[in-house]
Amino acid sequence: MSVLVVGSVAFDTLTTPFGTRKKILGGSATYFSLSARFFSPVKLVAVVGNDFPKKYIKLFEDKGIDLKGLDVADGKTFHWEGEYDWDFNAKTISTSLNVFANFNPKIPVEYKNSEYVFLANIDPDLQNKVLSQVKSPKLVACDTMNHWIASKPEALKKFLKKIDIFFLNDAEARQFSGEKNLVKAAKTIMKFGPKRIIIKKGEHGSLLFSKDSVFSLPAFLLEDVFDPTGAGDTFAGAVMGYLAKCGKISEKNLRNALIYGNIMATFTVEEFGPWRLSRVTKPEIEKRVKEFKRLTYF
Amino acid sequence: MSVLVVGSVAFDTLTTPFGTRKKILGGSATYFSLSARFFSPVKLVAVVGNDFPKKYIKLFEDKGIDLKGLDVADGKTFHWEGEYDWDFNAKTISTSLNVFANFNPKIPVEYKNSEYVFLANIDPDLQNKVLSQVKSPKLVACDTMNHWIASKPEALKKFLKKIDIFFLNDAEARQFSGEKNLVKAAKTIMKFGPKRIIIKKGEHGSLLFSKDSVFSLPAFLLEDVFDPTGAGDTFAGAVMGYLAKCGKISEKNLRNALIYGNIMATFTVEEFGPWRLSRVTKPEIEKRVKEFKRLTYF
Fold first, then answer.
1. Which tens digit of pLDDT belongs to each residue from A45-54?
2. Between chains, do A216 and B295 touch, taking CB under 8 Å as contact?
3. Is the pLDDT of residue B86 over 90?
4. Which phi and psi angles does B198 have, rounded to 5°?
5. From CA A10, how far away is CA A60, in angstroms rounded?
6. Alpha carbon A68 to chain centroid distance?
7. Yes or no, beta carbons of B298 and A181 under 8 Å apart
8. How far, in Å, CA of B184 to CA of B201, rounded?
9. Is A198's Cβ below 8 Å from some Cβ in B?
């Protein structure tokens, strides 16, 4: 099965304690698709400006990502500038939406039968509108961010009723639920309607909440983290790609999907931008999965 | 095998976001022994004042803890007053050492052949002095705190050369090593001499570093945490008690020991003071271990 992702393809200007990179390839759909493609074919829906470099288009094409849904619009590409402290908390310096301000995704006719759909972090009303163009998806997942939780909580809650897996991070879970404790936060958010919630805790791993079970996964241990940008979308890409490959949403498949999500994100954070992720090989992935099993078995 | 613990038996006055408790039973050796006794007999070495309530002595006796090493000195019992914020970071309000100021532990002759020894958080010179009274211990473990890392780093490093398992928390590991990253921190601290390090990460679980391997364990998920006091000593008590019960220090036994440490600490934090821990039953412990396995298997 293939995975349809709707999100951003953008320029990122990033500063971490280890340096600065200007106007490099970024965006949620970028990280998602470069990760998911290891497991399943990926169809990408996004918009870029006519300043978007051909070499980046070629990168996606070389990785086998279907770009029929990539709209090249008149104007400039979305540009996010952010800074991270030593705890890798992100601070937005500037957001230039550019062509992304008018993003109103049309799902290509060839994509309308997609079964695995991921709506990356965009306006929940837009997420809803995009989803309505897909005929009968088998698994729908989405991400969000603090901005939409604060500004459109009701639209988000309405949309979540259609969601099978809701990805969010620990800070967002606390913000959305008003609960400090993550178990309580997850219980509150489950009542909004999503079938499952995955709470991403960065260097502390991740949690999967289903109706009848909870799964806690520690993070892989890394000595060097240079840039956390895109880790969450890389994680979601692997989870969705893996599930689409399995074709069945069982607890076992979900738990294994989280392990791959975990591992794929470790490659992303080892370098600035999506370059390490774009170079990684299947044997490198499997080697790290094995190391992870040694790290956690008992 | 029995476990010898040398540490504090004290009064705690505690304030958490959930309330205040005045002058309740506390101290590192208290939590350690009430936890370790589920797995192995415990011999306790500590000092209290003559104001120490008989009912607390009786509590230890009722739980089968050997008190030949508990000195009742003229004066007042050690009294710690602390406060926790919503993140459960401890702030010391006051420390009245009282009889603990002159604590110079004499190991009773019956304890000198102890094979499993835990030196709780006291002056590293004192830890060293106590250890020299034990004939040929099989496994020696210790804890420490930010105060000794800052004030006596060289004495601590010297002592660590004799240590099989060094317990410390994530903040202490960063402080002691000067490394923000915990893998790098552990590597640096391993060079000081301990054979193994266990880094306690509170609600984020724990890490075991050995010469050739690393083990990462997520925490059990709790909805209600009322008071983190004693969680680390409860954890260490279960780890040491379990290892003494096994009688063999293998990677498998160590990993299982950490699971029991993890689980025992969950009981401690569910109520103020050591009361929940003192009431817990073996079936409750095994039930929670099973739940933990369901939470983490893949």
1. 999 999 999 9
2. yes
3. no
4. -115, 115
5. 13
6. 20
7. no
8. 15
9. no
Q: Give start and end residues of each alpha helix (H) in chain A.
A: 28-36, 54-62, 124-131, 146-151, 153-160, 170-177, 182-190, 231-246, 251-269, 275-279, 282-296
Distance CA A89, CA A170 (A): 12
Tens of pLDDT, residue by residue over B99-124, are 999 999 999 999 999 999 999 999 99
SS3 (DSSP) at B84: strand
Q: A275 CB contacts (<8 Å, ≥6 apart)? A: none
Residue A22, SS3? Answer: strand
Q: Average pLDDT of B249-256?
A: 97
Largest CA-CA distance found in chain B, in angstroms, rounded: 56
pLDDT of residue B90: 87
> Residue A240 and residue A264: Cα distance in Å, rounded?
12
Whether B186 and chain A come into contact, CB under 8 Å, resolves to no
| B212 at A interface, C-beta within 8 A | no
Phi and psi at residue A231, in whole multiples of 5°? Answer: -60, -45
Share of chain B above pLDDT 70, in %: 100
- Give the single-character DSSP code of B202: G
Report the distance separating Cα A7 and Cα A67, nearest Å.
Answer: 13
Residue B89 has pLDDT above 90, yes or no: no
Average pLDDT over residues B68-80: 97
Write down the pLDDT at residue B87.
Answer: 81
Q: Domain for residue A90, yes or no?
A: no
Residue of A157, A190, A186 lying closest to A173 (CA atoms) = A186
User: Closest Cα partner for B218 from B168, B285, B166, B293?
Assistant: B293
User: What is residue A143's predicted lDDT score, i.e. its pLDDT?
Assistant: 98
According to the model, what pLDDT value does residue A90 have?
87
CATH code at position B24: 3.40.1190.20
The answer to whether the CB atoms of B294 and A225 lie below 8 A apart is no
Taking the C-alpha atoms of residue A257 and residue A247, their distance in angstroms, rounded to an integer, is 12
**Distance separating alpha carbons of residues A40 and A295, to the nearest angstrom:** 27
Which pTM does this prediction carry?
A: 0.94
Q: Which amino acid is at B179?
A: E
- The range of the structural domain enclosing residue B102 comes to 3-296
d(CA B94, CA B131): 29
- A172 found inside a domain: yes
Q: Decide if B221 and A207 are in contact by the 8 Å CB cutoff.
A: yes
Report the complex ipTM.
0.90
Of the partner residues A213, A215, A221, the one whose CB lies closest to the CB of residue B183: A221
Examine the pLDDT at A2 and tell me if it is beyond 90.
Answer: yes
A131-159 per-position pLDDT tens digit? 999 999 999 999 999 999 999 999 999 99
Helices A124-131 and A153-160: crossing angle, nearest 10°?
A: 30
Pairwise CA distance, residues B292 & B264, whole Å: 12
CB A219 within 8 A of CB A268: no
Residue A224: its chain B contacts at CB < 8 A? Answer: 181
**Per-residue pLDDT tens for A246-281?**
999 999 999 999 999 999 999 999 999 999 999 999
Joined together, the tokens standing for residue B68 give 């030949």
Domain total in chain A: 1
Q: Which among A214, A221, A224 has the least Cβ separation from residue B221?
A: A214
